[in-house]
Amino acid sequence: MAELSRGGKQKETPKVVILDYGSGNLRSAERAVARTGVDVTVTSDLEAAAAADGLVVPGVGAYAACMAGIEQLGAGPVIAERVAAGKPVLGICVGMQILFDSGVEHGVETKGLGLLPGSVTKLAAERIPHMGWNTVEVPDGSRLLGGLAADTRFYFVHSYAAQDLDVLAQAGAKVTTASHDLPFAAVVETGALSAAQFHPEKSADAGYTLLSNWVATLR
User: Fold this and answer.
1) What single-letter DSSP state applies at residue 198?
2) Domain 2-216 grouped into CATH 3.40.630.10
3) H helices of 148-195, where?
4) How many angstroms separate the CA atoms of 192 and 182, rounded?
5) In degrees, to the nearest 5, what angle opens at C-alpha 41 toward C-alphas 35 and 42?
6) Contact predicate 17/58, CB 8 Å
């Protein structure tokens, strides 16, 4: 498929791959991304993942299980090479968490992809999991959350998060925070790498806006 550019010439519709490594709400993510008008493929084909205009890394469940799936598929180097080459990657939920150096669950530390600094740890909150709609604190200049009102809510389901915000700031990442008793990283943007702790595919129009903003970076 193709669309018209501003000059009247046809240009190819961006191609997005949703990485199938055995974890994630693949079909709901597929529908949500397809709503933005791009060509979407759900696949475990690493060549397709490397070549796509945009790559979505979903994830639900345990950090260690998701990393095991990534390692079994051999997807880690592909994700890292895309980021190094400036080719957009979007991590969602645990797909965001595995981008960090490590994750700690039940006292066990699992090595992550090391594309974001710091560790993912259990939320220091009275009620776990953090489930439901919550607002976020958006920093100036956020591409993913541009155009959204300050009281916009997103849908979260998680018990772990990246909570060392200073480490991310020192690395130059743009961090959107949310709070569940204490603040944590809800969105991280750095170069070609973007990540959301909440589920855009479950966040109605707000999620659609975020995905549309991400897709706009592919054009």
Assistant:
1) S
2) no
3) 165-170
4) 28
5) 105
6) no
| Domain ranges for the chain | 2-216
Residue 28 structure tokens: 């709901």
Query: CA-to-CA distance for 89 and 55, rounded, in angstroms?
Result: 5
* 184 within 8 A of 163, measured Cβ to Cβ: yes
For the chain, percent of residues with pLDDT exceeding 90? 92
DSSP for the chain?
-EEE-TTS-EEEPPEEEEE-SS-S-HHHHHHHHHTTT-EEEEE--HHHHHHSSEEEE---S-HHHHHHHHHHHT-HHHHHHHHHTT--EEEETHHHHTTEEEEEETTEEEE---SEEEEEEE---SSSSEEEEEE-BPPTT-STTTT--TT-EEEEEESEEE--HHHHHHTT-EEEEEEESEEEEEEEEETTEEEESS-GGGSHHHHHHHHHHHHHTT-
Q: Give per-residue pLDDT as tens, 99-147.
A: 999 999 999 999 999 999 999 999 999 999 999 999 999 999 999 999 9
Question: d(Cα 122, Cα 108) in Å, to the nearest integer?
Answer: 12
Catalytic residues, by residue number, are 93, 199, 201
- pLDDT tops 70 at residue 28: yes
The owner of tokens 């591409």 is 143
The number of C-alpha atoms within 13 Å of 12 and in the hemisphere containing its C-beta is 7
